[in-house]
Amino acid sequence: MGAESMLPGRVTDALEEYGRLLDRHGITWGEPELHYVKFFARRRVLPPSLLDRFWQLVFEAVAESHPGEPRDQVAARLAEPDYDRVLRDTLDGELPGHLVAVRIEPSGVALKGAPRTVLLPLRPEGQNGAGAPGEERISLLFDSSRDEPCPVSVDDTRRTLPPHGAWLVEVDEDSTIVAGGVPVHLETLRRPIPSSRLRLRAGLPCRWSVVADDGSGWFPPDVPHRYDYHGRPYFHGDDLVLQVPCVELTVTVARGMEYDEARRRLTPLPGEERLVELTPERLYDAPARGWYGGDLHVHLNWAGDRVAVPADAAAAQHGEDLHVLNLLAGNVSGRRVYDREALEHWTGRDLPWSDATHLARMGVEYRNDLLGHIYAFAPRSAPGRYHTGFDGDADWPPNADGLRELRGLGALVGYSHPFRTPIADGDPPKGIVSPVPRNCAARELVADAALGLVDSLDVLTHASIPATASVYRRLLGAGNRLAVTAGTDAMISFTRSDNQSNPPGWARVYARVEGELTARSFAAAVRAGRTFATTGPWLELSVNGQGPGHVLPATRGQRISVTATAVGPEVSAVRIRTAEGVWAGAERLPAEHWPEHRGRGEDRLTVTAELRVDAPTYVVAEVLCDPHPRTLTATGYALTSPVYVDVDGRQVAREEDVRWCLEWLDGLENLIRQHGRLASPYQFGDHMSLLQQARAVYQGRLS
């Protein structure tokens, strides 16, 4: 596909404007610095294991500055602290391999960090040819332990650090760095090494990783230097040439979750070009069974450290063998809607790189940080409104209005990255509704689900999968019929950002499609609930021979047969759940007890149970996972949509779950009263009217 056909004029103009924003403002692109925008640069540096610690220190810093304020008021001020000092305190002296520090101590200045490999040229200067890697910018942290201010500078940018201050900045290999009048020379960390070339070939587009033992990654020329949740470098393509150091390297090839990884250890010789042929082994073939996997929440551009172009999305989709890709136009923290021009150009059409088994569409993220964020897949045209509550706008109208408009445009809709706050079965909803007022949680979901305005919930997400799964079960038990889906919020314009810089499709919703794969057939399958969502394992559910989405009529006392099967090397347990909780399960034996002949294709676990139904219920299957390199987040998991079991003509509506939802609505009303930005009484009245309609639905179910 030629660049001209992939980049229409308006799209090209928008991308050029994004480049100017990046050059002028850095990673935030000049967006208003809400707490999560302010975090962008620090997220590039922090390992995922330290993210909770970072936010704990931010909260403590705000609480110290505002003693006696209620927790929710403190949480509304999370953008106030000095994030570079918080970063320094979070690291507590430790340096990730990709971070360099200038320690400014009373006795002097010292440069700290891991040695950086520099490749000696293959040919005379200026003749390296194909394979010469592009340079990555270096994250540098000035860290002062002095009791007095200290002047520092990077190139033409000067700053005075306060006592015990810190400053995180991006530098180049040849940047001029001065701290307290002392020049700092990055070349002292350089380690020159002879170089070679690798040619990587799989025979099909894949995800590759070339890593030295010190964790450094190596890339082909003109390819973004991307890193996944585990900090592993990766890039997409096939038959690629790259320059590498002559040290022991690990080459890994993968292709999304339907494939295992293949790897090879090697030490290239100076000046040679070595061909590495690796092909990942297929674990399961979903399309052969009529199932297609999609990621319903991906951004091409959403600020970031580079401007992403459509070719980047095409390479990722084919390299991950991701069947359905939903690229969302959306704002960050201001009024600008990124990739709106691409949406308006391609709306209602498949993107140019789509084929029979790879479908890409432009969609919409409708956003309000108080009420929640919504994905829309395959609208017929662009909506009139993309967000509320940003840059001085009111938190009005309710999200329900956005859902109605998007549904009127034919879009599949659901709530994205719903919940970050931990919540377990049995916990009251207060802990997830109120602690941080504007943390993007899907607070209006409980009302919109009751009113039938939502098709699905992204249970598989970069937010808390266990918390979201718990809420999802409550909603099902309260009588709401929602499909389980997956939306990763992968951002192609970020190259190092824990979950967000993962490849699209690291979590997927699989939908059983009737006929050919099209936007319409995929959306219809999700609306019908013929889905399961997963971070990797294949998952099947059969209830009296019927799969997810089916409504099974039954009589009181009838017995039904349930079977659940999971396939994948990370699978540790399979469970069958009903509205009453876990009904049956099976666990995998530890690896030391596996038969010697066990192969990768035998990573299968099945549980079968018989269930007597005395009241309306639902049946879902879930998979619990052991830690595994295939899992690109903190929690490996898979979950089916329900088979609904209606008894004597009645649908499930457990009193406990219905009252839980009513309590949620009370908490949401209080939150809107305290933290809603509303311009008039009638705007507040619209929210209260929506909540009253939802309450009436739930109260009706109690009877």
Description:
The protein has 703 residues and is of the alpha+beta class. Among the domains are: 31-114 and 137-181, no CATH class; 194-277, Immunoglobulin-like (Sandwich), CATH 2.60.40; 291-527, TIM Barrel, CATH 3.20.20. Helices cover 23% and strands 30% of the residues. The chain has a 16-stranded mixed β-sheet that branches. Helix 13 (465-477) packs across helix 15 (655-675). The radius of gyration is 26 Å and the shape is globular.
CATH top level assignment of the domain at 291-527: Alpha Beta
CATH architecture of the domain at 291-527: Alpha-Beta Barrel
The biggest beta sheet is recorded as:
16 strands, mixed
Structural category is alpha+beta
Mean pLDDT: 94
How many helical elements? 16
- Roughly how much helix do the residues carry, as a percent range? 10-25%
Relative strand content: 25-35%
Number-wise, the strands total: 37
The best one-word shape is globular
Rounded to an integer in angstroms, the radius of gyration calculated over CA atoms is: 26 Å
Distance N terminus to C terminus? 59 Å
Find the CATH topology of the domain at 291-527. Answer: TIM Barrel
Q: Uncertain regions: pLDDT < 50 for 5+ in a row?
A: 124-134, 593-601
Outline the fold blueprint.
Elements: H1 3-6, H2 9-25, H3 35-38, H4 40-43, H5 51-65, H6 71-75, H7 83-91, E1 99-105, E2 108-112, E3 116-119, E4 138-144, E5 150-154, E6 157-161, E7 166-171, E8 177-179, E9 182-184, E10 190-193, E11 195-201, E12 206-212, E13 226-227, E14 233-237, E15 240-245, E16 249-254, E17 262-266, E18 273-277, E19 291-299, H8 310-319, E20 324-329, H9 340-346, E21 359-368, E22 372-377, H10 399-408, E23 412-415, H11 430-433, H12 445-450, E24 456-460, H13 465-477, E25 483-486, E26 490-491, E27 508-512, H14 519-527, E28 531-534, E29 538-543, E30 551-554, E31 558-567, E32 571-578, E33 581-587, E34 604-613, E35 617-625, E36 637-640, E37 643-647, H15 655-675, H16 681-702
Parallel strand pairs: 1-4, 3-10, 11-18, 19-20, 19-26, 20-21, 23-24, 24-25, 30-37
Antiparallel strand pairs: 1-2, 4-7, 5-6, 5-8, 8-9, 11-15, 12-14, 12-16, 13-14, 16-17, 19-27, 21-22, 22-23, 27-28, 28-36, 29-31, 31-34, 32-33, 32-35, 35-36, 35-37
Helix pairs in contact: 5-7, 13-15, 15-16
